[in-house]
Amino acid sequence: MTLFEAPAYDPRKARRRNITIVAIVVAVLIVGTIAWFYRNYPEERVVQKFMTALENKDYEKAYGIWQHDPNWKQHPQNYPNYSFGEFYQDWGPGGEWGLIHSFHIDGSVSGGSGVVVVVTINQRKEQARLWVENKSKTMTFSPY
What we know:
Layout: H1 11-37, H2 41-55, H3 59-67, H4 84-91, E1 103-111, E2 114-121, E3 127-133, E4 139-141
Antiparallel strand pairs: 1-2, 2-3, 3-4
Helix pairs in contact: 2-3
C-alpha cells in the first residue's frame, strides 16, 4: 500500500474518535474538579473525629487524635511539650471553648506541610483554626 492508495475516509470512525476524545477530556475535568474540592478531606476527617470525641466528652480519645497516637497512655512521657493536663485545660469544660455541644467544619486551606481547618464551635462567631500536619496527621493550634 502506498500513499496514493490510502483507505477511504470513514466518517463513522472519525466521529467515534472525536466522541472518545471529548469523553476523555470531560472525565479528566470532572475527576480533577472532584480531587480539587476534596484535596484536604483526610485532614478535615481528622478534625471531625477530634471534635466528635470532644463533643462526647471523651478527652483521652481526643488527646490521642491530637497526638495521632491512640496508645498515648502507655508512653505519656513522649509528649512533654503538650501534656494531657495542658490539653484538658485548653479543651476541657473550663477551656476557651467550654463544653462542646455542636461544631461545623467550615473549610480548610493548604499551606506548607499541613492544612488549616476552620471550625465553628457551639455556633460562636469566633472560629477555631486547627493545624493538621499532612504526613503525621498530628494536630496543633494554627499559626495563622
